[in-house]
Batch of 2 targets.
Target 1
Amino acid sequence: MIHNYVRTVTSLLFFVTMINVQLSAQDEDVAMIQQLHETILKNGSCYSTLHTLCTSHPGRIAGSPNYLGAAEYTRNILSKIPSVKAKLQECKANHWVRGDVEDVLILNDKGELERMEALSLGNSVSTNGAGLMAEVIEVHSLDEVDKLGEAISGKIVFFNRPMDPTKIKTFNAYGGAVDQRVYGASRVAKYGGVAALVRSMTTRLDNYPHTGVTIYEDSLAKVPGFALSTFDAERLSAAIKKGPVKVFVNTNCRSEGMKSAPNVIGEIIGSEYPNEIIVIGGHLDSWDVGQGAHDDGAGCVQAIEVLQAFNRLGYRPKRTIRCVLFSNEENGLEGGKTYAKEANKNKEFHIAALESDSGGFSPRGFSFEADTSVFKSYYKSVSKWLPLLESYGLQFEMGGSGADIGPLKSQKGLLIGLRPDSQRYFDFHHTTIDTIDNVNQRELELGAGAMASLIYLIDKYGLK
Amino acid sequence: MIHNYVRTVTSLLFFVTMINVQLSAQDEDVAMIQQLHETILKNGSCYSTLHTLCTSHPGRIAGSPNYLGAAEYTRNILSKIPSVKAKLQECKANHWVRGDVEDVLILNDKGELERMEALSLGNSVSTNGAGLMAEVIEVHSLDEVDKLGEAISGKIVFFNRPMDPTKIKTFNAYGGAVDQRVYGASRVAKYGGVAALVRSMTTRLDNYPHTGVTIYEDSLAKVPGFALSTFDAERLSAAIKKGPVKVFVNTNCRSEGMKSAPNVIGEIIGSEYPNEIIVIGGHLDSWDVGQGAHDDGAGCVQAIEVLQAFNRLGYRPKRTIRCVLFSNEENGLEGGKTYAKEANKNKEFHIAALESDSGGFSPRGFSFEADTSVFKSYYKSVSKWLPLLESYGLQFEMGGSGADIGPLKSQKGLLIGLRPDSQRYFDFHHTTIDTIDNVNQRELELGAGAMASLIYLIDKYGLK
């Protein structure tokens, strides 16, 4: 009887202790997540870091002097955080240069050439020292080019399928239209076309052309590609409806070959599991136009802010937290590939990697992916934390993560993408107006707060 | 046996039929909500309506010619929607006028007066034909004024408690600071102070003063009140830390008495329950500075868009859907009070009222309130619809609705507020930069889509 009583009391005490431990752990997490948000909203420096990055190192195309300046600037910022070891990781990337000639001119009824707002697509070849004039054929898909076949020979092909405005998430609309920009020029070359014009990737009607990568098939000839502003895409389309239209294009853009374009890395070594690495990052390169503010200066400064917030709060992580600012996401992904290759060579295991590369807008959650053999168990683990993050307006979903961390997928860690509100992203993406004045400080900071909170939870609990 | 068999088959058939009915009702709702979003994102006119409202009828303070122009413009827009009956509902409001003199000048070390960025608070009295100069006392709360008591006699009191940047929802930060603007001038007068300066209601540091209402106690003297830009609030505070500071204030703002400022109403009579009214609306008046784009042109054009979307899809509501654009929300709420008074007089029952008055930003959900005797049952009803709206990024919460529909609460219907993302609202609220170029078309349209979807569900199912 006494024995039973003791056992019962012991069990009860154990039970009560467990509840207390659980409660206090949860209270601790609630408090820590609140403190992380508070320090970032009150004392964060990500917005001022982004301001300097954008204004002193704009147009950070990989391999350019501006890219190298940005790498040195961010390495220096990271190195000033106590407990962070910062370095550059060597990486080479093809340095593409826009050049100083860039004309897309429409021949009007009166025989005059009128300028249209256009940008050479990133990676495009030049018009070989002279412009070229040709009739324009309007199409709405790559398939349509295949169907036209030799009929496009000697012509300029104008891809004019808009992003679908009825998609609620604008990235889905982008995904549904961007094949024209990426593969259009090469497809045109296949049938003897002489250049590609592509309607800019945005649902807005405005005067800003959106550049972005075009990829050539090695086996085919290369013809130049241009993005047209949506206003001018409408204008060109309207002109074509009235009868044959000729356009003159001229560009001296070129590749300058492989150049140094290092990744920037800053890490805090974990106190208990130093060999379990958690990456947070964005990509430091941008297109050459604009300041790369949302794409992806925002992601870089948010990742830096996570380390700074941990430092301000005196949080010593159990696992190794590594901030990686990747190179060359826009034009070849050399940064992400190099990072993963080195990591594999050094047998470094990445338990998780979180990328912010969808703009510095109000955060709405995270998207998770992993190798199918481990995904379910990871997603179950992280789903337990959702109640801690919901009051910050955050939700979880399964889906893609980020281009730069993609090459780590074979390590079977968890890959995560920050998911900000997507409505305004394609107003600015790859344009001259992707600038600091179009970034809202609170929205940027809340994204950093969301990232810091999730990294804290992964670091503390792992993914069991 | 046969009998049993027949019964079983009959039951099974009944069961299958029930599932079909339920499924098809749900499918119908999914399809309708998708169509509502698609028509608004593709063919909606709310952004162009807002553009005209902002550029042709800016600064729509109730009782002003601009307000009357806006009322006529929106009545006309509503009247052009087939099946909508549009009218003006007479209402009178105190017409406050800023005047052409508005100076807040700080006396510097050299004895010179330097301009600070300031706006008279709405409803403020003038400085009676002449400016006044006095020493400034900085305080951080109304209580502090009470404690200082007669020590503030003859002084200008400067309220400098900032909005708390660590609140995730900016409206909570606003609620925690705005008492200084609303009651500061009157509290100062109580102890013989001569004017009130109030730090602008924003978490940003910038040069834009934010006006807004100040309310006087009838029993006390009235002294003028001004909003200072946050930069100048910091500057004034820094100056005060060095020693006594004098400021000169001068304004000839004034009340022009009660003027006509009608509500604008457009309604579709319900086909089955015409006596059950569902209100959707915003307020048509704005402050006199800026264009009243987010506050609250956005809410007005979204409410109009709901009727237009129903019309474009040929949706004939069962209940009476009434779009109400309220007058004088900013400076007395006469529009909301008049509307409720007339409704009660005419024994009109409002099953629900939905207001959009938190800016034209990306919608994140709805907030619900009602008389406590009915709230629980209503909230249970609407909660069933959440799965239909979650894929649009919408969540439900209990909380406030909107100032203009508040007076309907005693009718015991459901009151609802659209809840857009709040991060940027106080960048623009009550300033010269609350303009159309700071409204994103997609964000505005998605808000209208959310409103149309919820109104469709309430109309179709009621609140049983």
Note: Confidence is low (pLDDT under 50) at residues 1-6 of chain B.
Target 2
Amino acid sequence: MPYGLNDWLKFLVNTSREVHSTVKPILGSALASEVVGKGAGGDFTTRIDKLAEDVIINSLKSQNISCIVVSEEGGIMEIGGKSDVHVVIDSIDGTTNAIRGIPFFCTAIGVSKGNSIKDVDAGVVLNLSDGMIFYAEKGKGAYMNDKRIKTSGRASLEDAVIGVDFSKAEKEKIIGLMPLFKKVRHLRHFGANALEICYVASGLIDAFVDVRGILRVTDIAASYVILKEAGGKILKPNGEELDSILEPTQRVSFIAASNPTIYDEILKTINLGK
Amino acid sequence: MPYGLNDWLKFLVNTSREVHSTVKPILGSALASEVVGKGAGGDFTTRIDKLAEDVIINSLKSQNISCIVVSEEGGIMEIGGKSDVHVVIDSIDGTTNAIRGIPFFCTAIGVSKGNSIKDVDAGVVLNLSDGMIFYAEKGKGAYMNDKRIKTSGRASLEDAVIGVDFSKAEKEKIIGLMPLFKKVRHLRHFGANALEICYVASGLIDAFVDVRGILRVTDIAASYVILKEAGGKILKPNGEELDSILEPTQRVSFIAASNPTIYDEILKTINLGK
């Protein structure tokens, strides 16, 4: 079935809400954290990951949608007839938070007309602990709980609140980030990168930096379009456009910034070598 | 009026809920962030800080309680008749989050029979964004939303989720923490230290580390008793008992750990010199 962009957005919002109502009853239970397999991205798949993924796949099938699903858990699979449309799924981003009961984890689904992150046209990110939803489609702006959002205009690092993920980062990268740690007003790391990029999109924080090179493209595909539609930038740490094919094994490094000035300030401050 | 420990706990819970209902209407508004003065701790006082503080002070006065109030905003003040009881207030911990709309900030009130943090007998910490409440009194256990809580038994750093605040830390301290950054499963920093220590108390995270030496004792007095009653430890980074007089200018460095093993692991892993 051919789906227009507007149909996709409705599908994404409805499906993410269905994920929410499905996982809610098992949140915080031992059941949620039971390991049920290993994902295409290399991590263990817990019951809560699988449950959320099944909701999304079943939702695609029940609507007779033809597409290529790209998922951290299930890998790449064709659904329906031949199609160039990629549906990029991170069924649960922030699984550790979800299992621990820390109220910051989400489901993220992006839709792309091609196989590159640049082609992502629509995305939804829903915080599964409180139901807060972020969504966007190309050219139509970004929204948080049905309210139009835009990134902050904050231009100075001294006033900025910046999220950084450097768990498991190499020593050299941490050292390269240190001038940033010193300069910014406050650092944050909440533990679900897709949602943290949406925090940049909505102006709650001013940038989110992950230069480890270990985050999967599936984690950020949906947030990519939400941030761009909110007026933000997401670039590689060397200043180039972020680009990646949409495969569950693809890893990315990026700076997600609320505006060009803060991006430039971050780039000037960190020192990641060549 | 002489207050028993049990009376104090009721007072703390009721007063923190009153703070919640009072600040709720202005959350996220420009009004909340308006600077209305400078606190005894040295930071600017915003309208939301002041509003929360006024609720607590008025609550003490209206109950005819005699005590010494120790507050980040208002400094030290005697209320009612002569008393050794100290009421230690951080009216809003996580003001930046509160102003930005990031749903992680709290009010924290501790009650102490003397002027040292070791004397703190009862405490309450209430997350003002979602109403989640943590409280404890000495010898009676710690609670989250009326459910008894205890710290996690997790003993290995490789499995641990650890909160670290190193905003504005000296370069040497960040370097000393780097082996910890590398070793733990996940790092977190949510931005309200009183609440983050309660996350340790309730087993959501396994430790919280702040070795900057810039956090005020008023920020952690309430959480101190909640963590201890939940079975956790809070010690100086050199292994000594945490101690500090209860004054708004006093600064502390500490490791709040869920159990002695994880505390020892952290201590072995970090290198803060002498």
Note: The radius of gyration of chain B is 18 Å.
